[in-house]
Amino acid sequence: MPTSPLTSLPAWKALQAHCEQTRSVHLRELFQQDAARGERLTLDAIGIYLDYSKNRVGDETLRLLGQLAEQAGLRQRIDAMFAGEKINVTEKRAVLHVALRAARGSSIVVDGENVVPQVHSVLDKMAGFCNRIRSGDWKGHTGKPIRNVVNIGIGGSDLGPVMAYEALKHYSTRAIAFRFVSNIDGTDFAEAVHDLRPDETLFIVASKTFTTLETMTNAHTARDWLLAGLGGDASATAKHFVALSTNAKEVAGFGIDTMNMFGFWDWVGGRYSMDAAIGLSTMLAIGPENFQAMLAGFRAMDQHFRTAPFDENLPVLLGLLGIWNSNFLGAETVAVLPYDQYLKRFPAYLQQLTMESNGKRVTLDGKPVDYQTNPIYWGEPGTNGQHSFYQLIHQGTRLIPCDFIAFHQSLNPVGRHHAMLMANVFAQAEALAFGKTANEVETEGTADSLVPHRVFPGNRPSNMILAEKLTPEILGKLVALYEHIVFTQGTIWQVNSFDQWGVELGKVLAQRIIPELESAKDSILGHDSSTNRLIVRQRTHLAP
Ligand code: G6Q
Q1: Measured distance CA(240)–CA(230) in Å, rounded
Q2: For ligand 1, atom 11, which residue shows the shortest CA distance?
Q3: What is the pTM of this model?
Q4: Residues 183, 189: Cα–Cα separation, whole Å
């Protein structure tokens, strides 16, 4: 628990004063003052190279940010998480996604029980199942092997699996087609299965609670579709449905044999569960060995986060730089810009991880914060964004810090593509930092009237995150990196990064409106006049 409000910590106050003094310093000056800045303000650890020199920070800024982490109790809170303490105070739960990748034989105790053996027993069961599907041993109801896998889940039970499937497609079997259904919009399901044969299709119902409206609705629709395609024999479900859940009772109630259920635990949050049973689709795609390599990547980053000094600690440093950009320089968003097509869903995944975790307005003890918490995360893979929204990043009025992510080696080394891709990512970071002055524009012979339009102010901060090659192991490291950035920032902001009460209200109101939409036209509605009118308008379309 926080000991004193964030804004009264000495380091916070010192950072405010420091920000006032240094606000007008341009990255051009910082680089001129220190010829070695681009070599010095870098970190090379566990296979990830971070160049943070293009942030608007000096040695004093970094020193004060380090003090802020100490004064905010980051060290103690990291220890508390790894020790299985119930740091998710509003739900009275431990927060142990780190146990999901703990080495076999190690020990993490929750409520007096070592959870690591349970984790490995589920991983082993997943591996056995995946081997049977991938080898064709597992036969569908009519004796055919599985050629299509459809993951049905939403939020944390969808975004991680989709992101990981796309990210690791290079390593995946091409003998099985993978689809992901999440939206309650029937179009999502219809499009996912329109070209699939039921007798070759396996549905994975991924839901921690097994009560989520979207997932259960899609799961029922999937069962109807399957049975319709297999002559209505209800026993067909057994060979075509498996469940990923913590709720055995609901799984059995749906009609899935709990032998075909892969469990996890209440100390794994949905958005932190892609390396738990929720990753079954990932393991099916890339195989158990590659999945283990991904877990090893997660584990390496956990170890680094837990043991590296703060000034050499990738998640801590990136977390603190984010605090500097948001809380002191006033940035409202962060753009995540992977220069790798396989990471096309990584920004969407990070949106949930960061914004559902730290999009909070009260502290752990329920007091309203008087500072900004999580910025808005967004992004697209490079170079596509360069031809659309980068305009605003370069010349708009807002400050948008960017995380560039790129790999030295391409998994698809086609012609000169990779050199061009990498040239672009380096060029963008350079242009954002240093811009182009009016003087430079004039020297090029630009007409006077055009000069202001062609000036790039620069001084836009960015991080460059590089690794050798996108492998399962590196993906594990990248995801764990951002998980721990979120943890670092949540600790500084003194919020609970592990609950999500904010998603509740809309769910409750939707449950109230569903019967109203489907009921007789003239029942009395008790909403505001706008909502009432919208319901009445829609009713005319739903009425038989
Ligand atoms: C994640 C959230 C949320 C959750 C979904 C799906 O941290 O809790 O996105 O993952 O609402 O929940 P179920 O897995 O229970 O269906």
Answers
A1: 11
A2: 155
A3: 0.97
A4: 8
